[in-house]
Amino acid sequence: MNLLYKSTRNSDTRVTASQAILKGLAEDGGLFVPVRIPKLPVTLRELRDMSYQETAYTIMKEFFTDFTEEELKNCIAKAYDSKFDTEEIAPLAKVGHAYFLELYHGATIAFKDMALSILPHLLTTSAKKNDVKNEIVILTATSGDTGKAALAGFADVEGTRIIVFYPKDGVSKVQELQMVTQKGENTSVVAIHGNFDNAQSGVKAMFEDKELEKELADAGYQFSSANSINIGRLVPQVVYYVYAYAKLLQNEEIAEGEEINVVVPTGNFGNILAAYYAKCMGLPIAKLICASNENKVLYDFFQTGTYDKNRVFVLTSSPSMDILISSNLERLIYLIAGEDSEKNAELMKNLKETGAYEISEDMKAKLGDFVGGYATEERVKQEIHDTYTATDYVMDTHTAVAAAVHSDYVKETGDDRKAVIASTASPYKFGRSVLTAIDEEYDKMDEFALIDVLHQISKREIPNAIEEIRNAKILHTTECDINEMKNTVKTILKI
Length: 495
Ligand SMILES: *Cc1c(COP(=O)(O)O)cnc(C)c1O
Hints:
This protein is an alpha/beta fold. It is built from 22 helices and 16 strands. Strand 4 (92-95) and strand 5 form a beta hairpin. The model has no long low-confidence stretch (mean pLDDT 95). Bound molecules: pyridoxal-5'-phosphate.
């Protein structure tokens, strides 16, 4: 029996997994969710000795039931290969009393690689299964990390093109270099004269442009999105929580069935939602600790039951978490509303119209598995500094938000269950912030000198992703004004 997917805003919709992956978002603007969350198909003991790829297959086959074994194994093999700098794919580092699940060993050294290395393969397989003959054009607006991870994932994947828009002055030097040096015949990168919101609005307008859709179809193209709300990104993220638990078992750090806590530095709520799905599947997780930076909309939500994005947007040292609308939260809201799509749609309407919504006491009562926390910029620096001083372990700013929230949580509650901290970026990606937290003096040095310092003090290899951009050729120089985005896409596609 196929596991079907429905929309969070209309429970009558039913599509297969491959259709949900192709569509990304449901027609009614809702997100696709499985009609039920499957249970772990094997025992924890059986998971213990599985490789990452085997774990991935065990989990994903329960969600993507319309894929054949061969199709799914193929996608997994193409995704989790030597692009990762370790065979473990997502290694677990024991530091002090916590376990850092390092999700940054892929091509672009941030956790987005975990899902974006497999999404292109899931997408092209889905296209074949549904007789889509058009070439798939991925359009993405990025504030930094997603764009590069999507480019790396889609580069030279047959049957796809990818066009990424980024704000010319809105990304870090390393992030810009990572994108404009991207290889691959099917990749295009465009700097827009505007900010991230302009880029995102421009992309959204193109997705909704029926005339453009027709022009594309006539030329043999159709748009798709690599956005984090795609179920093809969410499900691959469930895998590493299961894998981490299995590794703890294998290393005899926990007993079979022992409950652990999971701590996730959160922005769009995709990563932590995947951990929640893992818990729903039967993985022994006690608390899901949702860590925010100073943009603490989610912390306030868990405290009060009111989600309110009407506030000052803060630029922090963990930019990938500088978000005021956490799109994936809608999937949790839908679940705690008792899968009532009307109720959910009403709340989302409030969010759109007023920037806020409030959940009922009933719904609030169902949030007991979650704990919200946040860390200020000062606290993040202190965490990086103190952990390095005590253990020599160097963590990036996003991971530090989670580590800080976790140590404060343990102090406050005394809950000292073993904890897995999702480590979402390599310290090399945010070298300046990391090093100045360790010693202010480093702020005087230039970007590449900092990399060498980081290499000395962390005793970790400089990742390929960084080595590559030192001398790489700039391959993308296209720029455009915000009102020229559509024409730029047409020029790139020659239509
Ligand atoms: C995207 C990102 C996050 C936030 O993850 P969500 O799934 O959006 O909550 C955290 N850290 C890094 C480094 C990221 O790139």
